[in-house]
């Protein structure tokens, strides 16, 4: 099994596509984010994701690939730690209210069912869904393998983490007038610190539960002062998530 994982890691490779990424983060404590998922198509990392059950991964709806190689238990994408697990995604369900990024970013979430359940270890664990929504000012963090500065800079090999705080909805409405719904939650806004192209679908973790998925943000350079990142507000979708998992 170990040799098969090593070969798959070599075949899948380390090419990163231009999707949401973390700017000005720091290297996570290895395997401190055991729910973190990397979604690969061929040799390209397309999106992040989050394990919420042995057989289910949540990601952003705008991550539109039909079949992903799902990598779990990772820290360094180029070195084998013998904690890695690789699965293939099969059935997927995009939220029925998602209209596409060109129309609206509302309901930007998608469930992926793994063809084979993961083995739960210290490095591979699901993240709990919320029972309440996160209040403004709540301390949270995000994680991903995206660019650490600008889209043209090198991608990090090791998982990056960044602390962010929930921004009041009214503040976010001022920054993005007419574009923020109750199904979105905003966080960050400190200069140089943000998600950016590449971490799409990755987790916003607050108090040990999943409160958001990286969705969208500034059109210009990532991490602009006063411009928060926008996340899918998971507390609004718990019933839908549980229904899909139960019925499929």
Automatic annotation (TrEMBL):
GO terms for biological process: proteolysis. Residues 22-246 form the Peptidase S1 domain. Keywords: Disulfide bond, Hydrolase, Protease, Serine protease, Signal. One of its GO terms (molecular function) is serine-type endopeptidase activity. GO terms for cellular component: secretory granule. Residues 1-17 form the signal peptide. This is Kallikrein related peptidase 12. It comes from Rousettus aegyptiacus.
């Amino acid at each position: 099994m170990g040799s098969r994982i090593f070969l798959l890691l070599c075949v899948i490779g380390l090419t990163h596509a231009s999707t949401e990424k973390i700017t000005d983060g720091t290297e996570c404590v290895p395997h401190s984010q055991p729910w973190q998922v990397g979604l690969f198509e061929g040799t390209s990392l397309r999106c992040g994701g989050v394990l919420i059950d042995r057989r289910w991964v949540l990601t952003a709806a705008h991550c539109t690939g039909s079949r992903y190689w799902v990598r779990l238990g990772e820290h360094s994408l180029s070195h084998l730690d013998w904690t890695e697990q690789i699965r293939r995604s099969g059935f997927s369900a995009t939220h029925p209210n998602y209209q596409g990024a060109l129309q609206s970013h509302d309901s930007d979430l998608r469930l992926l069912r793994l063809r084979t359940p993961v083995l739960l270890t210290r490095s591979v664990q699901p993240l709990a869904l919320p029972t309440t929504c996160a209040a403004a000012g709540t301390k949270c963090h995000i994680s991903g393998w995206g660019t650490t500065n600008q889209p043209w800079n090198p991608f990090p090999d090791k998982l990056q983490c960044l602390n962010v705080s929930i921004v009041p909805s009214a503040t976010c409405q001022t920054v993005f007038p007419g574009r923020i719904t109750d199904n979105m939650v905003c966080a960050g806004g400190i200069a140089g610190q943000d998600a950016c192209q590449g971490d799409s679908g990755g987790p916003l973790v607050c108090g040990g539960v999943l409160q958001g998925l990286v969705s969208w943000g500034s059109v210009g350079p990532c991490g602009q002062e006063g411009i928060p990142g926008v996340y899918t507000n998971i507390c609004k979708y718990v019933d839908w998530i549980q229904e899909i998992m139960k019925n499929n």
